[in-house]
Amino acid sequence: MFPTPESVRPRRPFSRWDFLVIPGIVVLLVLLDIGFKGAAVPFGPGTPNLTVNLNPANLPYYGLRTLLRMAVALLCSLTFTFVYATVAARVPRAERVMIPILDFLQSLPILGFLTATTTIFLGLFRGNLLGLEAVSIFAIFTSQVWNMTFSFYASLTTQPKELQEAAIALRLSPWQRFWKLDVPYAMPGLVWNTMMSVSGGWFFVVASEVISVTGRDQSQFLPGVGSYVGLAIQQADVRAMVYAGITVLLLVLFYDQLFFRPLVAWSEKFKLELSEGKDVPQSWVLTALQRARFAGRLARLPVPLWEWLWLKTATGSRPGKPQKPRSDSRTELALNQGFNLLLAVGSAVLLLALGLFLFGPGLGVQGGQILGANPNLNRDFSPQVAQQFGALGVKVGPTRAVWLSQVCPLAGPQLEKLLEATVGPFNLATACQRRVVPPGKVALGEIPHVFKLGLFTALRVTVLVFLVMLFWIPVGVWIGLRPRVAQWVQPLAQFAAAFPANLLFPVFVVFIVHFKLNPEFWTAPLMVLGTQWYVTFNIIAGATSLPSDLKEVAQVTHLKGWNWWRRLVLPGIFPAFVTGGITATGNSWNTSIVAEVVSWGSTTLTATGLGAYIAHWSTGEFNPHVGLGVLVMGLWVLAYNRLIWRPLYRLAEEKYRLG
Amino acid sequence: MKKTQAKTILSAKDISKTFISPEGKPFTVLDNINLELHEGEIVALLGRSGSGKSTLLRTLLGLVEPSAGEVRYRDQRVRGPMPGMALVFQSFALFPWLTVQQNVELGLEAMGVPAAERRPRALQAIDLIGLDGFESAFPKELSGGMRQRVGFARALVTNPDILFMDEPFSALDVLTSETLRSELLELWMEQKIPTKAILIVTHNIEEAALMADRILILSANPGRVRAEIAVPCPRLNDRDHPAFKELVEQIYRIMTTPVATPLTSPAVPAEPRSIGYRLPAATIEALEGLIDRVASGPDYGREDLPRLAAEMQLEIDDLFPLADATELLKLAVVKEGDIQLTAQGRLFAEGDTEARKRLFAVLLSEQVPLVAHIVRVLETRPGGRAPEDRFLRELEDYMSTEDANAVLATAIDWGRYAELFEYDYNAGILSREIAIPAA
Questions:
Q1: Which one of A219, A242, A500, B316 has the fewest beta carbons within 10 angstroms of its own beta carbon?
Q2: Residue B222, preceding bond cis, omega within 30 degrees?
Q3: B13-16, long-range: CB within 8 Å, 24+ apart, which pairs?
């Protein structure tokens, strides 16, 4: 072969791309330093309440803090994904426990977690703001991590057989195999899911930077775009909302160009197609990074360490491991049975613990009698009301709840008057006759009520996703069949999905209040405001990939009108429709916690539903009511997916897959 | 045997491999196999699909653990791939995200060879196999032949003692595979590679005859060594040489002679009278094509199978199921490497579509118990309908789920052609053929 011109040219240590890349790296380091300094300040009982300033000059700094939180959450998600999915896929029997757990965790509403973790993280980082940071990061983490883990696990279990065999026959060590086969093979799916996750994460950034802490009357506003929005909503400041919106737009654009574009362009080489594709994604950042010579040299500094690790783990001259251990041996059978027993005992213990936490000792039953509910008489957890009750000697909990059972022993005219004033007509004597569960616990009788609330939310999700589809299917198909239009609409739709819809909620509140609409129905569109985009770009992608020969046949046979839809388009986009639908409904459930209770300034609109129930009881401490709400919502989502989406998904896989 | 004095590198003793189906039923893929591999020889494993030849190769290599018996490599028990072994795949199994050089280096990395040594060794292997200039190319930029060269380079870079090859040329076109094969044989004969023995799995009779010193023929369901042929003059580079032709004929004769099932294995229903008979995967069009060709050939109604295979470019995995199907349906007799149409076979060849279908329906009901069983069940059912799962369950008493699916698919295909019953794919329901009244 002839030497290429590249190899003859004298190598200089710098290329012109270095003038771009090196300052870029320096700026990045400085930003990191600023961000971390701000996050690691003391925070204890003596520190004043955290707040943000609506002056837009602060927004760049807030944006930096928010981005850092998302970045840390992403790193955690990635680490979790690698460890969890690998263990689930590789350790025998592990997947039988780990995958159902993952499935369940995925269906739990993320924002319900927020209260559970506040106490833990504040204790973990005692006296430092990092505790609150961790709460917010954890919320973002839980919004990102599940589908990344599922994607990686799916790749691990669907690796092509011949590549697996090649890895074994070549005697790659587990470490080598992980980096040469497992991760590269999973890369395209993982990158795509990471992008989806980060988009979805924005929504929770806005919801997770304002944190209620036990023992403080006011919510804590962590410096960030999310709490900026939170404060703007509280003060009904339209201008601040606009500034925040612009900031989010710029931030999304910024990390898309600097991070995701290069990542997507780079991950292109991990696609398993053995032929060269046509439209290969490009990224100027990637080009710059690959051509910057000095920066490249810097990046290669850790290579010897990596190589050392690589050779250290090598199999060397030892024999490799065969594909699977014998599964028919007697020890294996015994192990399986032991494992099943352990599993049964473990779940029984777990259920009991959960029951005790939710219903108290006796599991909601005492002396053969089902205990009644122990309601909170301070419905809105208002500090003033709590104080008034406290003044009369009633024991008030840290979340300012006033439980009926605490009031009963102190019954008197003063108390009745206070009840009259705060709760309305209330017959304390009759209410106190029934034996009730301990303060804060849930009564068995409340469960059906919570399930009913779930039904309302389920109805809202179903109807709204259906309406959204009714709108987006024709529009999406129209766009998808015109490649020119699709080319620029597709990225816009993805962008829209990243834009946190909660920024637009106030518009709806003003609208509903102005026209005196019924909030029970009219707050429902909020649930799909952000999630509709999953439907949109899936439908567009589905329509774009309709095979051209089928379209031509339709043309030749004069397939028109309803028949054209029925015979060609609807079956053709069915798999895309199902994928979009699953994502959209899943996210809508999550959204319900913020969408069923919306406020703008002093106006708060509440719709009856499970989301509102969880939001109502989220008072800074994970309590049995939130637990029940989260649990029931998890069950609803699981049932919803099992009964509606799984059969449709199977149908799409078996019957309507093209190519 | 000429090579008895040569040193044994690899030996397999009483190897059996049983898979357990999801329902807990065991299926024997390899049954009591003994073989030895000596220094300086190429051994070909030849068998039809389902003979477990790939499983045998993987067992010998240590990729798959045998259910019984043991494999020994240079007096060590094989419990996983050994350092002196390398494997070349049918589908190349290259890592698409690694360049040619990185792919080749992979084997060295597993051995813990430091980077400074890896590079020159990989380049050497790349040169040896004729890939110089493509070091930095990705597999997707290469043609099939070039990809398999990478596969060879990756296997040879570790200087393997034994080279295992799993149908290495069958994914390539005829010309390319010819070139690659002769280049590999050249490396072997001129001892440019330190490899001491080669084991190749193939379903191509000519390939086995061209390459091997010894050919082991496996029978199917379960896989057993059926015959061992020591090639008298190995590696003749001439397909017209009488010795070569004789060898190919001999192999065909062995492979078309039915195996007498020993009474000792009741798990294998080989008698064609049971519904668990494994229907050969033959499509109707191919069947018609074969019969038409035999009928219109120069020796009216009789044809030499090797010649047919060469002429119609059929691999044995295509040809033998077809031949089996004609024999099962009594359309032809296959014996001694020849196929001879029966009276019914000629009738079939002469008939028009309608006549063919009628004849086919009669033969199916008479000769294929599974189809007859389906028709019977459909007749007794009210409404004449039955779910396919029902028959699948019955077949699973005889074979693995995968095989049962394949056999039922063939039965449905044949039955539909003969218009014995109808099948609704979506519902998975078989139903009696309902005559459509002429409009």
A1: A242
A2: yes
A3: B13/B69, B13/B70, B13/B71, B13/B72, B14/B68, B14/B69, B14/B70, B15/B56, B15/B59, B15/B66, B15/B68, B15/B69, B15/B70, B15/B71, B16/B66, B16/B67, B16/B68, B16/B69
Among residues A606, A599, A609, A615, the alpha carbon closest in space to that of A505 is found at A599
User: Which among A181, A322, A655 has the least Cβ separation from residue B426?
Assistant: A655
Q: Any CB–CB contact under 8 A between A549 and chain B?
A: no
Instruction: Indicate the DSSP class of residue A588.
Output: H
Coil, helix or strand for B301?
Answer: coil
Strands A597-600 and A369-370: unpaired
Quote the DSSP letter at residue A28: H
Residues near A560 by beta carbon (within 8 Å), at least 6 away in sequence: none
Element (H, E) at A33: helix A18-39
Collect all residues of chain A within an 8 Å Cβ-Cβ radius of residue B81.
168-171, 319-320, 322
Of A143, A113, A119, A149, the residue nearest A131 (C-alpha): A119
B18-53 pLDDT per residue, tens: 887 666 677 888 989 999 999 999 999 998 877 888
Whether the CB of B325 is below 8 Å from some CB of chain A: the reply is: no
The set of residues, in sequence order, having a beta carbon less than 8 Å from that of A602 and lying 6+ positions away, is A236
Q: Is A275 helix (H, G, I), strand (E, B) or coil?
A: coil
Q: Which residues of B touch A174 (CB under 8 A)?
A: none
SS3 B291: helix
Residues in A closer than 8 angstroms to B90, CB to CB, are: 162
Domains B291-350 and B354-439 share a fold: yes
The partner residue sitting opposite B80, judged by closest CB among A181, A270, A322, is: A322
Minimal Cα–Cα distance from B352 to chain A, Å?
31
pLDDT score for B264: 43
Task: Compute the distance between CA of residue B130 and CA of residue B184 in angstroms, rounded to an integer.
Answer: 11
- A73 vs B222: which has the higher pLDDT: A73
Nearest CA in chain B to A651: B426
Domain B3-256 is in which class? alpha beta
User: Mean pLDDT in each 10-residue stretch from start to end of chain A (659 residues)?
Assistant: 48 71 82 81 74 86 90 93 91 82 78 74 81 87 86 87 91 91 89 82 80 75 88 87 89 84 79 56 74 73 80 80 65 80 89 84 76 77 78 76 78 77 74 78 85 91 89 89 80 76 83 86 83 83 81 84 86 85 83 82 84 81 83 87 86 72
Residue in chain B closest to A317 (alpha carbons) equals B83
Domain boundaries, chain B: 3-256, 291-350, 354-439
> Considering only CA atoms, which of B67, B56, B66 is closest in space to residue B224?
B56
Q: How far away is chain B from the Cα of A654, in angstroms, using its nearest Cα?
A: 9
User: Tell me, which fold does domain B291-350 have in CATH?
Assistant: Arc Repressor Mutant, subunit A (1.10.10)
- The percent helix, strand, coil of chain A (3-state, each to 5) is 70, 5, 25
For A125, the token pair is 């980082």
- Whole-prediction pTM value? 0.82
Question: Class of B354-439 per CATH?
Answer: mainly alpha
* Amino acid making up residue A632: V
Hey, is the C-beta of A327 within 8 angstroms of any chain B C-beta? yes
Burial A387-400 (b: 16+ CB within 10 A, else e): ebbeeeebebbebb
Q: For tokens 């499970």, what's the residue?
A: A610
Of A1, A169, A176, the CB nearest to B87: A169
Cβ-proximal residues to B396 (8 Å cutoff; 6+ apart), any chain: B21, B23, B25, B404
